[in-house]
């Protein structure tokens, strides 16, 4: 693991983590670019940054899984993003790395973890626990959708480290993923006051509850609906020689949908549960939509237009 501390424009202590998966070069390149652009952290008397200190803010940039990055493989022994909380004494590299990474993020006010996938755009965010910091991150990122993974696994970074949001920035290995992820990181830094080049912008974000994985059998895979596209009741989401996945309830959308990206799943089913509002606009919770769900390509502001008035 490599940790690079940089100057923050404000008092927040924020972190961006790339290279959780070694075969996702976008996160590594984005972290390296930010490290080159942001000013070194100027500490009095050469003191090391102490995450517990009440002092000024910092931007902590982390390359998580260096051996896997070096080998250009997702992991060496175990998937790091399925290994939390981990075990410092484990012989498996990633299980031992997990608590070290969590320690680097202890006391940090906001964490953004960078990922890419085999699935098609649009990019989206993921959280497990909606805190004020997470709300600020999610509504400050240039994404229309956030997946609430709180009901899924408890072994991911965003479930193990408070105030963490993961972001899928695009297709694995693509230049678009690097370009988008870089802009998303700058938006994240602005949202938390760590970057003062321009004011942050916030917008309502549609929350999709992650429900279950959609298994793949064998033979020719066919996926009929794109990410966050509403699957009509009774329609077939995906099929192969073994499975025909027909959706029997309204409001279901695909997450990480892919015909050939994953060996064992077509993706996941999600359910649109509402919107999260920008900081300062109402309580910290998911507001239900009172219009038909699954308006996958509409933006959050449109979804909010018909509902009861905002506070301001
Ligand atoms: Zn990843």
From TrEMBL:
Cellular component annotations (GO), alphabetically ordered: cytosol
Cofactor(s), by name: Zn(2+)
InterPro entries: AspA/AstE_fam, AstE_AspA_cat
Keyword S-adenosyl-L-methionine (UniProt): no
Any one Gene Ontology molecular-function term assigned to this protein's record: hydrolase activity, acting on ester bonds
Renumbered residue ranges of the record's region Disordered: 280-312
Keywords, sorted A to Z: Hydrolase, Metal-binding, Zinc
PANTHER family tied to this protein: ASPARTOACYLASE, SUCCINYLGLUTAMATE DESUCCINYLASE
Record protein name field: Succinylglutamate desuccinylase/Aspartoacylase catalytic domain-containing protein
Organism (species): Halorubrum trapanicum
